[in-house]
Design a protein that fits this description.
Elements: E1 6-8, E2 18-20, H1 23-32, E3 40-44, E4 50-58, E5 63-72, E6 80-84, H2 89-101, E7 106-111, H3 122-136, E8 143-144, E9 148-149, H4 150-155, E10 162-166, E11 186-190, H5 198-206, E12 210-213, H6 222-237
Parallel strand pairs: 1-3, 6-7, 6-11, 7-8, 7-9, 10-11, 10-12
Antiparallel strand pairs: 2-5, 3-4, 4-5
Helix pairs in contact: 2-3, 2-6
The chain binds S-adenosyl-L-homocysteine.
S-adenosyl-L-homocysteine (SAH) is lined by residues 166-168, 170-171, 190-191, 193-196, 214-216, 219-220, 222, 225.
Protein name: Ribosomal RNA small subunit methyltransferase E
Subcellular location: Cytoplasm
Organism: Ruegeria atlantica
Length: 241
């Protein structure tokens, strides 16, 4: 048995577990998707894998589903943080969506010297990560952190976590990921539209856990660079193998 509609819920999932729906979820399932009692939905909550569930009660303002069987175990992504300097709204949304699809475990907007935005809507970005996970068949939802200053993040950097520093100054160079340090936690860093300052570049390159890489012979926009970097990392060290 399989269900086409996937829904993220903040509720425990398990054999026979009933799951109450919020007003928005009920509207989506019964109003938009036209499901009724007996209809099937795939549920996940980021912890218990994916569960096939059946509609038990369907109302305008609410409803209840009941878990039938587990349809997928929980699949955790590799321990990869994705750090990026937020840019314009639509492109930042795109970056969060793609990072969730590409299997980042944690998405961290960081304020760099040339980052324009001082604020992000963390709740909206988190909702994008949830939607992307619903869409791509994932069972784990990456956390989107609030905006933090890059220098603060570096000050409290966890021991052992490697950093793939995508530096536009390396455009056209042959610096790529070596493909070692496979058992370590990692992070990717992409700069904002304005790129990195010389001071940031020097500091980042000097970090003992930093691996400076080039993303090829052309300067990519930050949103393109995000997808390219995640592809490169997943291919060399992640779960594409
Ligand atoms: N305004 C800058 C470019 C910034 S591109 C300039 O003209 O130099 C935005 C981010 O994408 C960069 O900070 C970097 O992290 C990444 N990026 C884009 N192209 C890249 C490349 N060829 N190699 C490495 N990183 C790249």
């Amino acid at each position: 048995m399989s269900a086409k509609i996937r829904l993220y819920v903040e509720h425990p999932l398990g054999q026979g577990q009933s799951v109450p729906l919020t007003r928005e979820q009920a509207h989506y399932l019964f109003g938009v998707m036209r499901l009724s009692v007996g209809g099937q939905v795939a549920l996940f909550n980021g912890q218990d894998g994916e569960w096939l569930a059946e509609v038990i009660e369907a109302g305008k303002r609410g409803g209840v589903l009941s878990c039938v069987e587990q349809s997928k175990p929980l699949q955790l992504p590799p321990d990869l943080w994705f750090l990026f300097g937020p840019i314009k709204k639509a492109r930042t949304d795109f970056i969060v969506e793609k990072a969730a699809e590409m299997g980042a475990a944690r998405i961290m907007p960081v304020q760099t010297e040339f980052t324009n935005s001082e604020r992000i809507r963390q709740d909206r970005l988190q909702a994008h990560a949830v939607e992307a996970t619903e869409q791509c068949g994932g069972t784990f939802v990456p956390e989107v952190a609030d905006l933090q200053r890059l220098d603060r993040v570096l000050e409290s950097w966890p021991e052992g976590r490697q950093l793939m520093f995508c530096d536009e100054a390396e455009v056209g160079s042959a610096l790529r990921l070596a493909g070692n340090e496979t058992d370590q936690p990692w992070a990717i860093l992409i700069g904002p539209e304005g790129g990195f300052s010389e001071r940031e570049r020097a500091r980042l390159a000097a970090l003992p856990y930093s691996h400076v890489v080039s993303l090829g012979p052309r300067i990519l926009r930050a949103d393109t660079a995000a997808v390219a970097a995640l592809t490169m990392w997943q291919q060399a060290l992640g779960d594409w193998v």
